[in-house]
Structures are given as structure tokens and as C-alpha cells.
Amino acid sequence: MAERDPGRRGRRPSVLKVSLPSALALGVAAAMSLLAFCWPLLWTPRSGPGSDMAGGQTPLVFALVLPVVIAVVMTQLGHDDMDVKALALLGVLTAVGAGLRPLGTGTAGMELIFFLMILAARVFGPGFGFVLGTTTLFCSALLTSGMGPWLPFQMLAAGFVGLGAGLLPRLRGRAEVAMLGLYGVLSGFVYGWLMDLAFWPFALGNASALSFDPTIGPWANLHRFVLYNAATSMGWNLGRALTNLVLILVLGPSVLRILRRASRRANFDQACRPMRNLP
Q: How far apart are CA 158 and CA 52, in angstroms?
């Protein structure tokens, strides 16, 4: 009987390596995403003609730039030893996630796509989680006719949900499932906050006390946004968070076991070892 590699216990499979160039690309994407989502708290209007128009065009500019950022990051990640087996696994999980989205329909925030990308990112790593998040949201938008300027924002937000899940500390057993459940709750709220923040300035106009007003400064606008989010979106964010929690606690152990078995059979660790280390 072949001896088991003693260093393999507790080690994640290297389905998609993240090299230094890929880490830099992810850093640029994170910075661009932060600007895209938080621009209402960072933009200061200039006096003079055309200033209001410039502010109104800001989300459109980011909606045009973010697909390029996503393409660059995914191309770089794709160069990092994503072999045929990893691509096949990515395709299967993307198809499953995209098929789950119409089942949830977003009613009361019940979205079924996030728990799978969180569990898959946990098993296969942060790079795989980022790619899975973006591809799942893109393919599900094709199924649900959800194409629009909001799609790049959704793709990046979901990608970073997967990335964060892949970066969580290494635990096993009930502690791991509990940690993933708590992350599902947090990511459910964060995803909703980011999507609301990107388009909040256009939701109410200028007449409401909860609307965006660039003249009052970032802290006052943040206070208004918190009140706006609590009044309009808290139920949806809570529904998304609870859906993630329940699905991870109920299905998490079984899904993690299935994904880890698939990883062992695909032998990603062995496939990613340098040739000189092979017998």
C-alpha cells in the first residue's frame, strides 16, 4: 500500500494558484471595486457647469471600466495553472450556481447562489472562489435576463465573497461549519450594503432626508445611507444572510465532503506539483 503524504493532511488542494502577478491584479481590482461601490462617499462636486452631469455619469464610467478589470483579473488567474480538470470543475459549479438563482428569485432576500460559492471557495481556495463568484453571477444573469449596468458590480461583489471565503482560517468539523455560517451571514449583509451604496444616490432624488447630498460631506452621507439601508433594504439583507446561514448549517457538511472527495479524485495536489518532485 502506498504511503500517504504526511504533509497533505489539512492542506488545501491547489486548484488555482495565485501568483504574485495575480495577487497584484486582485489588489487593483479591489481598489477599483472600492471606488466603484463607495464613490458617493468619496466624490466632491465641483462648482461650475457640468459638475452635476459628471457626478451622474460616475456609475456609468465604473460600469464600463469594471468589465475590463474583471477580464484582466480572470485572464491572469487563468494563466496560473488552471488545468482542464479545474476548468471542468469551474464549469460544473458555475452551472449549478446559475441554476440555483432562479429558484430563489430574490424574494425577501432568499438567494440560493452564495452558499455554494462560499463552500467551494473554502475547499478549492481564494483564487477559485473569486473566479467562481464572477462566472456564477454572469451566467445566472443570462438565465434571468439580468443584464444591465449593475452586472459588473454584482460580479465583483460576488467574486470577493468567494475570495474572502477562501481566505478564512483552517478549521475542521463543527467549528468549520460554524465559521462558514457566520461568514455567510456577514457576506450576505456586506453584499447588500455594497450594491445599495453604488446606486443609492439615484434611489430617492434630492427631496428626501435620506437621499444622497454631496454638499454635506462623507460622514453625514454615511449616516444617511445607514438610515436608508435600514429603512429599505434591511429585510432583504437579513433574508440573504439567514438563507446563507441555514443552507450552510444544513447542507454544508455534506457539500464539503462531496467537494473534498471530488478534489481527491481529481488529484489536484499531485497535478500541481513540479515535475521534478514526481516519482
A: 30
Nearest alpha-carbon partner for 249 in 152, 184, 170, 203: 184
Query: Torsion over CA of 223, 227, 229 and 233, rounded to 10 degrees?
Result: 170
pTM: 0.78
Question: CB-side exposure of 89: number of CA atoms within 13 Å?
Answer: 28
Mean pLDDT by 10 residues, the chain (279 residues): 43 59 75 78 58 52 69 64 75 88 68 91 87 88 77 86 90 92 94 85 70 79 87 86 94 93 71 39
Nearest CA among 32, 120, 125 for reference residue 73: 32
Residues 6 or more apart in contact with residue 163 via CB below 8 angstroms: 26, 121, 126, 127, 129, 130, 133
Helix (H, G, I), strand (E, B) or coil at 83: coil
Kindly list the structural domains of the chain, giving each domain's residue range(s) and its CATH number in brackets, ordered by start.
58-272 (1.10.1760.20)
| Residue pair 114/158 in contact by the 8 Å Cβ criterion | yes
